[in-house]
Amino acid sequence: MRQDTHTLSDTSPRHGTRKADRPLFGGFIADETTAGLVRTAVAEKGWDTTALKSGTIAAAVRGLAAGARPRFLMVDLTGSQDPRNDVQALADVCDQETVVVALGTVNDVGLYRDLNASGVHDYLVKPVTQQQLHWVLDDVDAVLSVACGDTDSAASPDRPASNTGFIGVRGGIGTSTLVANMGWALAMRGVDTALVDFDLVFGTLALQFDLEPGRGLLDALENPHRIDGLFLERAMVKPHNRLSILGTEAAPGMPQNDTPHRTTDGAQQDVEAHLIDRLGERYGAVLADIPREAAIRRPDLLARMTDIVLVADFSVAAARDCIRLKAFLKTAAPDVNTHLMISMAGCMAGDVSRRDFETSVELPVSAVIPYDPKGFQIAVQKDKPVVEAAPRSKASRAILAWTESSFGLTRQSKASALRWLRPDALQKVRKRDPRQRAQPLSQDRDDNGPMAGPARQQAGGTA
Prior knowledge:
This is Pilus assembly protein CpaE. It is a single chain. This protein is α/β, with parallel strands linked by helices. It folds into two domains: 25-148, Response regulator (Rossmann fold, 3-Layer(aba) Sandwich), CATH 3.40.50.2300; 162-409, P-loop containing nucleotide triphosphate hydrolases (Rossmann fold, 3-Layer(aba) Sandwich), CATH 3.40.50. The protein is 38% helix and 16% strand. It is built from 18 helices and 15 strands. Strand 13 (307-312), helix 12 and strand 14 (337-345) form a beta-alpha-beta unit. The chain is elongated and about 70 Å long.
């Protein structure tokens, strides 16, 4: 895995401009109220606020024709008589890889879908809130990170098998949801993946796929000498031929096996660590959902991971617990890469700002997954993981972007995703039957909408 970076060195296919020479952000907003909110959100990301200008999309077309073309552009469609043609005019002066977010006053699902079909990353209806802007900028940041082409060795497709542990610093923030969706995303991209649920009593990884976990993990922990390929094949449940889940439903209060396992060379190690070693021999990626108590009790398990992801929200309590767990990991697993992921962002009022959170924890946020109940509702209706049921929802895009960049994968539609204007799609939009009636944006959409977790989870996320 790697930390987010924005260093680019390749060449734009449209204009031949080196990405490293292009500004990160540019914007044209018509009214000062919205501009003030955008300026605040941009400043909190550490981006150049002087790149935000006054004007509508027409001013953006004039400005970009004569100046530098940013990698991320915000434009204002307020007052536009023909937004679709104005977007086409903008495409003529933009690089194909530019990520575009549009704002406007028209609340119409037909316009939203037309802009989205043409490749515009997102469309926000005024008046916008500070939280909406934070979500959008975090989403764009994740997309730009995937587009970076980082050559870090940890993101190389030829890297060895990855053992990644996820520790929810607080309950109820969707850690199991994230693990399940990332496992599904890896499996859909051809990676043989194992999910391990170390919550022996109340684990939900198997339930995320409407499966019973059986006794597989409990049997493995009680009989570590039996763990081999045949044992694992029988002990794990499989929602997909490339995705296997090892879990259990132990009775509350059942004593756990604390007897160390003795390896062939006479050394002793925790049974859980021995299990991770065996899984790592069979699977390209092992994702472990580790409760806080298990993490503290089993330092050998943490040391067997290549990466640990602390899953938190932007609360004061989460910041405190991140600091404590980070300090513990430095002692228990000093060689493990530690990452910080924010889940269900925007769910609770009074959240700490991202900048203040990172400063207090002294760890950069690798990804922000927005609270997204509409996407979850779609997943429930389709009875699928949300990255499969609603892949275009904002939280799905954030999960997929982080998974792909962290594990060195390439999204199948990455080339088209980076080209925000697709002429063939625009032509289809123009040929659409004008008699079709648009519906208000407030209605649920099957092809888009926020999301928080896979199909079997309660809306709002659980641990």
